[in-house]
Sequence to fold (218 residues):
Amino acid sequence: MLSKRLKTVADLVTPCERVADVGTDHGYVPIYLMKENICQFAYAMDVNEGPLNIAKSNIAEEGLEDKIETILSDGFDNFGDREVDSVIIAGMGGDLIVDILSRARQYSFNEMILSPHKRSDLVRKFLFNSGYKISDEKMVEDAGKYYPVIKANKGEGYCNQVQLEFGPVLLKNNDETLKAYLDIEYQKFSRIKSGLDREDQELDKKIELIKKGLEYYV
Fold:
């Protein structure tokens, strides 16, 4: 049922009492967490009624209505006074993830599992500026696309620009999937550069950043 990316997301969740999946879509991650007894109760949340209705149907089909509560909500806007141990936000841009978390500062989350499909640097920067450290990271190749999955817990952390862009734990562990992604990105942007008849400072900065990321593997 779960894609490779969503399985990686779910498997990073620490066993806990309550988990919230923001942008749950069809509810596959909460269903998996309940069936595997990783968490005891889940909130499946989505801003769109259509996907949430499908999630409700999938939850009922698995007989998990007493284990998963669906909530129609833009981020945590309708979360009320509920409490949660772990938060999952996957499948959206880093800027949107940061916006959702910025609007939920009244809540205290011990753990967050975040998987942005772009601008993961914004997510990492937000975490460090908000009193979180990155405790684990995975890089997943799924259907030809690459996705970082970030696990954050409360604590102090720091990243330089290269680590913000590509992930401090991924670089420290010499993650091979990240290496494959960096190789692809370097070749892609180098081809673009060779086809230009003018200087492009932003492109040069991008290539230099990728090169610095690859230096971790030397």
In short: The first strand starts at residue 16 and ends at 22.
